[in-house]
Amino acid sequence: MTTTEDVLACIAHRVGDQPMSESSELTDLGVDSLLLLRIITDLAADETQEIEPHDLARLVTVGDLADFVGRWNGGPRP
What we know:
By secondary structure, the chain is mainly α. It is 50% helix and 0% strand. The chain has four helices and no strands. The protein has helices at 4-15, 33-43, 53-57, 62-72. The longest helix is centred in the N-terminal third of the chain and has 12 residues, at 4-15. The model has no long low-confidence stretch (mean pLDDT 89).
């Protein structure tokens, strides 16, 4: 199961260590649409799952991403 800490660590790995929290906006961290897909793939339990593009458009904050990945991986986010 993916936690918020997992998501924060993955983002930090991709964009560098910088202050961020669950309420940080992805664009403020330098996360664009391609990088977002890479982060989601890094966190995927099954990399072959399909992602609906309109679902990605709703991801604004780190918390939104953590919620999405938790659901996408088959369970609620702790």
